[in-house]
Amino acid sequence: MSSGLQRRRVTSNNNSSSTNVPGSISTPGLSSLSPGPASPEPSNYHSESFASENGHRIAFDPRDLQEGDERSKQPRLTLMEEVLLMGLKDKQGYLSFWNDNISYALRGCIVLELAFRGRISMQRDPTRRRLPLCDRLIEVIDERLTGEVLLDEALKLMKGSEKMSVAAWIDLMSGETWNLMKIGYQLKQVRERLAKGLVDKGILRTEKRNFLLFDMATHPVSDTGAKDEIRRRAINILTTKTVVLNASPLVPDDVPFRYLRTVAMVCAAYAANVLENALSNLSHDGRDRAFGRVDELLGDYSQWPFASKPGGSGGIGINLAQEISDELNANKDKELQVEVVAAALSVFTRLDSIL
């Protein structure tokens, strides 16, 4: 299990002295000791330094800056966290006890998020088109850690395993398998770990609540603005004539696939039986139209190539197909990753709540 990011240690050169390195500190009594042999620095590891306020020079790895720049272009919340947050009761801080689909949908969101972040893609094999979309094999194309514990844990499982399909991975991570040899692929306590991650991000807080015979940790919403922003995006894409997703602290303007990511979010929330919470302020007819629209989106974007047509249906989202087409044209080298997104959405169409 991944424990998060680890600090890289820069190997020091024992032959360096205080006269060669500005700002270095000499230790009395150790100058007479003969230095040991210098350990060569690996060729693929480069370190730089910069002067701090007190004049000392501090080593750092430029790859840390590159990874930090890559993470700055990712949304603040993952798809799993958005779906979980949509399902949480604001004041009570827990999910509905009768929701049987959210656990499976959250594992699907893990696959979606890894694809959006460019960590996995469909295997580049022309013969894959003979198979149904959700049965095509996926592979890890970038094993760098994301900084999100669940994503990194799933990424390590995929990297160390034989290649399997999108449907197989979602089943295995959900524990939906009769193969005892693969029970170790199950990701456990996903909802609780996501909730704790949202506590760390300042979105939720932790409280103890008594349920008759036992106490249970709950996670009420402390940052209602974040949840309101998720609701607004869902309503925007499901009810408005022209969909405009303005930049926000949760989803900055430079996040890749902003429109497709939002479609995936509402489809995952639909599959997880939590979308109704985002539509609670709509009228009865408005909710029916919104559910009809997400049904259309799930049907259109669970195929590859996507089956969406310009103009929208029922006058809703007339520009959405064009916006997503523009995103695809701007990322033509990522088509195999987007194919994984379509495959994960096709798995959602098989859930009992949708059939």
Automatic annotation (TrEMBL):
<protein>
    <recommendedName>
        <fullName>Vacuolar protein sorting-associated protein 74</fullName>
    </recommendedName>
</protein>
<dbReference type="GO" id="GO:0032580">
    <property type="term" value="C:Golgi cisterna membrane"/>
</dbReference>
<dbReference type="GO" id="GO:0007030">
    <property type="term" value="P:Golgi organization"/>
</dbReference>
<feature type="compositionally biased region" description="Basic residues">
    <location>
        <begin position="1"/>
        <end position="10"/>
    </location>
</feature>
<dbReference type="GO" id="GO:0035269">
    <property type="term" value="P:protein O-linked glycosylation via mannose"/>
</dbReference>
<keyword id="KW-0472">Membrane</keyword>
<dbReference type="GO" id="GO:0019899">
    <property type="term" value="F:enzyme binding"/>
</dbReference>
<feature type="compositionally biased region" description="Low complexity">
    <location>
        <begin position="11"/>
        <end position="36"/>
    </location>
</feature>
<dbReference type="GO" id="GO:0005797">
    <property type="term" value="C:Golgi medial cisterna"/>
</dbReference>
<dbReference type="GO" id="GO:0070273">
    <property type="term" value="F:phosphatidylinositol-4-phosphate binding"/>
</dbReference>
<dbReference type="GO" id="GO:0005829">
    <property type="term" value="C:cytosol"/>
</dbReference>
<dbReference type="GO" id="GO:0048194">
    <property type="term" value="P:Golgi vesicle budding"/>
</dbReference>
<feature type="region of interest" description="Disordered">
    <location>
        <begin position="1"/>
        <end position="51"/>
    </location>
</feature>
<keyword id="KW-0333">Golgi apparatus</keyword>
<dbReference type="GO" id="GO:0005802">
    <property type="term" value="C:trans-Golgi network"/>
</dbReference>
<dbReference type="GO" id="GO:0045053">
    <property type="term" value="P:protein retention in Golgi apparatus"/>
</dbReference>
<dbReference type="GO" id="GO:0006890">
    <property type="term" value="P:retrograde vesicle-mediated transport, Golgi to endoplasmic reticulum"/>
</dbReference>
<comment type="function">
    <text>Phosphatidylinositol-4-phosphate-binding protein that links Golgi membranes to the cytoskeleton and may participate in the tensile force required for vesicle budding from the Golgi. Thereby, may play a role in Golgi membrane trafficking and could indirectly give its flattened shape to the Golgi apparatus. May also bind to the coatomer to regulate Golgi membrane trafficking. May play a role in anterograde transport from the Golgi to the plasma membrane and regulate secretion.</text>
</comment>
<dbReference type="Pfam" id="PF05719">
    <property type="entry name" value="GPP34"/>
</dbReference>
<dbReference type="GO" id="GO:0006487">
    <property type="term" value="P:protein N-linked glycosylation"/>
</dbReference>
<dbReference type="GO" id="GO:0043001">
    <property type="term" value="P:Golgi to plasma membrane protein transport"/>
</dbReference>
<keyword id="KW-0446">Lipid-binding</keyword>
<dbReference type="InterPro" id="IPR038261">
    <property type="entry name" value="GPP34-like_sf"/>
</dbReference>
<dbReference type="GO" id="GO:0000139">
    <property type="term" value="C:Golgi membrane"/>
</dbReference>
<dbReference type="GO" id="GO:0060304">
    <property type="term" value="P:regulation of phosphatidylinositol dephosphorylation"/>
</dbReference>
<comment type="similarity">
    <text>Belongs to the GOLPH3/VPS74 family.</text>
</comment>
<dbReference type="GO" id="GO:0030968">
    <property type="term" value="P:endoplasmic reticulum unfolded protein response"/>
</dbReference>
<dbReference type="InterPro" id="IPR008628">
    <property type="entry name" value="GPP34-like"/>
</dbReference>
